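WARN no homologs supplied; continuing
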Amino acid sequence: MQEGFVRSEIKNGIATITFFHPQSNSMPGYQLNALAQEIEKVGKDANAKVILLKSEGEKAFCAGASFDELISIKDIDTGTKFFSGFAGVINAIRKAPKFVLVRVQGKAVGGGVGIACSGDYTFGVSEASVKLSELAVGIGPFVVGPAVERKIGKSAFCELTINATEWRNAQWAKEKGMYADVFDTIAEMDKAIETLAQKLALSNPEAMAMLKKIMWQGCDSWDTLLLERAGMSGKLVLSEFTINAINKFKAK
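OK structure emitted
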């Protein structure tokens, strides 16, 4: 099985961070940690004025947590550590002193929805449907919940969380504020991303850093909150219900 990767490059002030995993861009623990570290590193690089976060492929932006890794978890500490990986990515985006643009070129599930909602400006295509499927496998969107609720509001967050097996289309996501713009094709989306990224790369870095801080005001507790939430998921993933539910999903 081909391993996943995280890589970045900086060109003309635009830092592009790309992640990939052969299983629909699902995220094992090592890749979550690598992604958080890359965002933190680029955030400190003076050559980067704006950050673009994207994944490879066309069908899936991010399928959330790696099921293979979930069913291998045998104790609460390991479970908490795994789900802390999503906390690390969200907090890295939140703390980066630069705007983070997110490119959603395909479906987003679970943790993928959390990453999309953490972006300061998120683009999607018409095929970029979203689903918070955690309850369907016996856990809940505890770690990503604060980021999703912050972006789309409590009512829409509850809708996604409770009806965990149903997709919401990209237009729904745009109406709720998850996507700033939705495009018919990836090419159209990439052109719009390039236009905005180039403008931001020429904008005042100090002004953008100040605006970023204001936009995320009230989220300072997330360093602790998201780790506490990771413990909730880490406990539930050990339950017989969750193990059986994940195995059923894998068998499909």
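The mean pLDDT is 95.
OK
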